Amino acid sequence: MRMKRLSFAIFWLFSSAAAAQQTECPVPLMPQLPQTNLSNPGDIHVKAAKTQIQQDTLAQFSGNVEIVSEQGHIQAQRAEINKADKTLHADGNIRFLDQQIQVNSEQIDLDLASGQLRLDSTEYQMLGFAGRGRADSIQLDNKEGLALKDVSFTTCPEGSEDWQIRASSLELSPNDNWGTARNTRFYLGGVPVFYLPYFKFPVTDERQTGLLFPKMSTSDKVGVSYEQPFYWNIAPNYDATFSPRVMTDRGVQLKTEFRYLTEEHQGQIDVEYLPDDRRYDLDKSRYFYRFLHQGKLSENWQVSAEINGLSDDNYFVDLGSDYFNRGDTHMYQTLAVNYYSEPLDFSAEVRDFEIIGDHPSAYRAVPELKLNYRQPLSEYLNFRVRSELAHFEDGRDDTPSATRLHMMPTLSVPLQNAWGELLTEASLLQTWYKQDLPEGSALQENVSRTLGQGRIYGAINFERETELFGSNMTQTLEPKFQYLYTSYENQDGIGLYDSNRLLNDYTGLFRGQEFVGLDRISDSNHLTVGVTTRLLDKNHQERFKLSLGQIFYFNNTKLKEYSREDDRSALAAELDWRLSSKWVARSALQLSSSNQKVERSNLTLDYQMSADKLVQISHRYVRDISGEEINQLGVTASWPLSQNWHWVGRWYKDLHGKRTIESFTGLQYESCCWALQFGSMRYLSNRFDTAGGQSTEEFDTTILLEFVFKGVGSKKSSRTLLDEGLFGYRQPYFLNN
What we know:
Structural class: mainly beta
Number of strands: 43
Radius of gyration: 35 Å
Helix content: under 10%
Oligomer: single chain
Shape: elongated
Number of helices: 1
Distance between the termini: 38 Å
Low-confidence stretches: 1-23, 713-719, 725-737
Largest sheet: 26 strands, antiparallel, barrel
Mean pLDDT: 83
Strand content: over 45%
């Protein structure tokens, strides 16, 4: 198997690999060559307005001459074929054409015996991508390959050569993936800015060892940053990238990436290392590592791993990351083996965490085994068992650790058809704990908990045809309900290892559980009611959707620390409304049933005319999360200013704290052959102090600057500028997901 990655020498532009680049310059179409069948390899077919043949050895042609040979298709005003010397000469508005290149020339000479072709004073156009240029001469030989003298290359249109490469000679040998260029100059706006006396470059779209396009930026955190990746094509299924990064305020960082791929396995290893951070005079080096692996052990068995580590809490904040956000608080360290079959699923996982900053120590599952079995007993009766065995510890001596075994056999009767469904379930929840307790703990060493649970879920779909705003619509009404009963058992003797209370959006109302994890299972006797209505246009596209739902409790929970004040949950609502082809509104909120105040909400209004012409206004609100209120307003926009200029911007304000927490503005100039991107971003640094606390007052400013020469490096669209920063541009998300 082969991994796809194109690698280019610093200026690989003459390479046919440039055909893989996406540009907006006019791209020449592949030509339709004459369908002339040559009987023998050396045959030549000629058409002309006038023909003269001398003694069967010299043939002269004039007037709209067309010559078809193995080498290609030639058009000229005059041509001469010498049968004795086995040569062909043509001049007068020469046009040479094959499947890869079109050349206009003053004259062409072809040695029919050796297959050597020479064109003088040429202008060439690559076919399939926007590469073109001039050459004093082009010589093609079946044995020696292709040689160009005094050659130039650009992807810019004629008359607007914003960048160009010139070389005294260029050579491409047959059966060789590398070409050679000598005395190469790189021009910007007609001014030479770079010179290489000699270099080699790839000539195919196969992965090749070489320099990738550099990255440049400047910020308060690192100063001016220059990163130069070097790609090493080790083997068809192994490669590596080394990226030295020079930062004026911090020093030299080395970033490495190694990838591997086999028939059954694939993975990646990343290591970043900064030996000496000059800015903070740290006594130790700074590093980050990451290992990812996915593999197939057999038809049913799979293995996966994710291991991350870093030297200090501020590594991502100070140096950035391609894989993590500066607001992340945990990194996973997991190893898992999974088995899948029709009746049985099994997984074994070791789950650890790397905690960033001053956050509570999390319990690790070392290991966690899960086994699920399902079997239809009859047409209307199903049986399944969910089971789990896990050991939890957090690495401290003053906290409990535990081994937990949980089993949940379930009998269900599912009834379904096109207009509705009814599901009845009965389950037994049996859990055993063996806890290793510190001295003085109020928990119990051995706990056995047995609970019974019954669930009835039903949904029905109604439809009707209606007319709204002059359009024919289909309206649906989709009520559903769920009754849930769970018995009670005292759980004070059980520690909390993987359990937290869940927040209920509309979908969460029907989960049938109030906690993630198994350490707390609330006694239940409640009814959940919800309804959804939709409007579908004549193309069956959803134009409007509104969902409302609420839980009605018949009695309070006996888990004292989770006692409820109300006999009903917050009212959960979700709205998706496509106001027009360009306007879309989305909202989700939870409204308290006791004081009718909004507990959580999320609202976005999108105006989008095209992929790069959009405005989004968003607001999110949480009344109480860890004792804090979140009340944020954001505006994101992307808009073309002219044919070549594009602007993007983003602004987020904390309405509760009355301050801007992130702002970004960026400009891009883009022609069909090059682009310049400039951006400035100011944001909360989120830096940790020595005690692990995170700063909420310190701001950083970053300047982004990037040149993109199309045909040299990858094109970066203006839309990608919206992804910079902590928030970025995205579809709305729910805070409790």
